[in-house]
Predict the 3D structure of the following.
Amino acid sequence: MDAATDEQLASLKTLNHVTYGLYALALLGFGTTAIVAIVINYIKKDDARGTWMESHFAWQIRTFWWSVVWFVLGWLTFLILIGWVVWGVASVWFVYRIAKGWLNLNDNKPMPA
């Protein structure tokens, strides 16, 4: 790898640290941070194409959209009390996805497809 590629990977890695942090902040009730993170993911994902960092962008994008699906499903089933269970499981799943992704990023490992 040449220096420019190393520099680009370092920049993408820093950006992914930021987006994982924004997703983590969403768990604390700052949901708008997840929207900022998904916008960043879509804007910068082409810059990561062909690198191991591409898998982190894909991982974060899938995590966001599946979380939206599960939280909407929880909201729709809230009145019959199943929604609480759906939200609980979705929250644990979201924490797992953010933690696993962030740890792999820290170790310079791609995410599984």
In short: The chain has one domain: 3-106. The longest helix spans residues 82-106.
